[in-house]
Amino acid sequence: MSGTKSEFPKLAKPAIRALESAGLFRLQQLTEVQEEELAKLHGMGPKAIEQLRLALLEKGWQFNKK
Question: Which sequence spans correspond to the domains of the chain?
Fold first, then answer.
């Protein structure tokens, strides 16, 4: 879905593609996803996960802890 303005922080293109292919387009959607599941996505590395974690924290949110 190129051309879609996502709410995610500036991430590497493979990480953005991984999120979009998983149907994730908004930061708030990540509160429903476990960090471990996100890490399994092809293109999602530790740096991108850390950037997302910090972006969530800025909003007072976090990944789903189950």
Answer: 13-58
Global pTM exceeds 0.90: no
**Concatenated DSSP letters of 4-41:** ---SS-S--HHHHHHHHHTT--SGGGGGGS-HHHHHTS
**Tokens for 7?**
């709410």
- Residue 59 CB neighbours (<10 A): 11
pLDDT digits (tens, 9 = 90+) for 7-16: 788 899 999 9
Which residue, 35, 24, 28, is CA-closest to 64? 35
How far apart, in Å, do the first and last CA atoms of the chain sit? 29
- The pLDDT, as a whole number, for residue 5 is 57
